[in-house]
Design goal:
Blueprint: H1 9-29, H2 35-42, H3 46-65, E1 74-81, E2 91-102, H4 106-173, H5 178-213, H6 234-239, H7 245-266, E3 271-281, E4 284-292, H8 302-366, H9 372-406
Length: 412
């Protein structure tokens, strides 16, 4: 009798589904890293998952805080033999149960403190996620700056190769001294080294971005260096300071500190223990009921109450400082935004001018219309102009990214 083949249509379907999922995941991972894509990946980044796990710990504490009492019931028992004068040996036993009952609203205070700590953990997680988003977007902008730097370095190297080749031709024709060849060769080597350095910086910065996002593959980084869109007016940021993630986190931390102080004050109330006792004494059944309550005389939770009250004051001070820092940071960012925007607008025309000047100087040297010194001088001025424009654009992009994230939008 032939045995049944393992697998069959069901196994084929599982393999096909797995293949489709794998292909979909690979295609999703290979999606270019735009700013919108970076914002999506930040939500599932390793650092975000760690923060969410910590929030889950606080959530578990909320469930545990609803227990009836932090003390467990106690059951005790004793048994023995009574030696009576008449020589009888009757059995005697005692069983006692003690049931704790919290007084002074301790259970409610525990629950409220746990819920406040959970809200504070969630607010801090959102603040950390916003900081992670800003950091990832700034790293994304740095990679875009590096891409521009590599392109500029490659163009400079290509032009220096042209100049070096022209110097060799002119030297062979006897219309240029040997010094021109040496200088052109030195410039070509410097530009080749600059191109390699720019490529290395781009690779390192890109690895930093991929590490933050938790990616192993390199899907490529795309987008404009300066984000599109307009930044809201300063008055909008000033009015929205209270809604900043760090300010809300500080306010939630203050609420948690106040709830903790209430919980510690509630602990000053003792825990009442209801007692029930059964005794078997010389064939007699004896039942007793009563209570036991500690006297909060020597220690009424004074240390914890004082400490929690001081923590409330510290949390209130941190919230005030957070509000002031947020308002000051907004004004500082807006001032830098205005300055960098003016710098970019002022330097923007130099890009086309520098490209045209270098092209004319290089072409003129190839045709024998000018000397190498003029070409190198033009190149130096063009390099400084291009570098200044690129740095101004990067600084402007960084400030604009922070402002747009603070405004609650993802830069495009």
């Amino acid at each position: 009798m032939l045995g049944r083949r393992p697998g069959g249509p069901r196994a084929v379907g599982v393999v096909a589904a797995f293949t489709i999922c794998l292909a979909s995941a690979r295609a999703h991972a290979e999606e270019p890293l735009t700013r919108q894509r970076v914002a999506e990946l930040v939500k599932v980044a390793p650092a975000t998952r760690v923060t969410q796990s910590e929030v889950g710990v606080s959530g578990a504490a909320v469930t545990a805080a609803g227990t009836l009492s932090l003390e467990n019931p106690v059951v005790s028992g004793l048994g023995g033999v009574r030696f009576n004068p008449d020589g009888s040996r009757p059995f005697n036993g005692v069983a006692t149960v003690s049931w704790p009952v919290d007084l002074g609203g301790k259970r409610g205070a525990r629950r409220e403190a746990a819920e406040a700590e959970y809200r504070a953990a969630g607010a801090e997680a959102r603040s950390q996620e916003r900081r992670l988003l800003v950091g990832a977007l700034l790293q994304h902008a740095l990679v875009l700056r590096d891409e521009r730097q590599v392109a500029i370095a490659a163009a400079r190297h290509a032009l220096s190769e042209r100049v070096y080749a022209a110097a060799q031709r002119r030297r062979a024709a006897g219309s240029a001294p040997e010094l021109d060849v040496a200088l052109a060769a030195m410039q070509e080597k410097r530009d080749a080294s600059a191109e390699e350095s720019a490529s290395g910086a781009r690779a390192a910065d890109k690895l930093g971005l991929l590490t933050v996002l938790g990616l192993n593959d390199d899907p490529g980084v795309v987008g404009s260096l300066v984000p599109d869109g307009d930044v809201p007016a300063l008055a909008v940021f000033t009015k929205g300071v209270e809604q900043r993630a760090e300010v809300r986190a500080a306010a939630a931390a203050l609420d948690a500190a106040q709830a903790t102080a209430e919980r510690e004050r509630a602990k000053r109330w003792p825990t009442l223990n209801v007692l029930g006792q059964y005794e078997r004494d010389d064939q007699a059944n004896i039942g007793l009921i009563g209570f036991a309550i500690p006297l909060a005389v020597l220690n009424a939770n004074r240390a914890e109450v004082a400490t929690s009250a001081a923590q409330v004051q510290a949390a209130r001070s941190r919230m005030t400082r957070s509000r002031i820092d947020a308002a000051g940071q907004v004004r500082e960012l807006y001032a830098r935004y205005t300055a960098t925007k003016a710098a970019v607008d002022s330097l923007a025309p130099t890009e086309a001018l520098a490209t045209r000047a270098v092209a004319l100087a290089t072409r003129g040297y190839e045709l024998g219309e000018n000397d190498l010194t003029s070409v190198l001088l033009v190149r130096r001025e063009a390099v400084e102009a291009e570098s200044a424009l690129l740095e101004a654009q990067h600084a402007h992009a960084a400030v604009k990214i922070e402002l747009l994230v603070n405004a609650g939008s993802v830069p495009q």
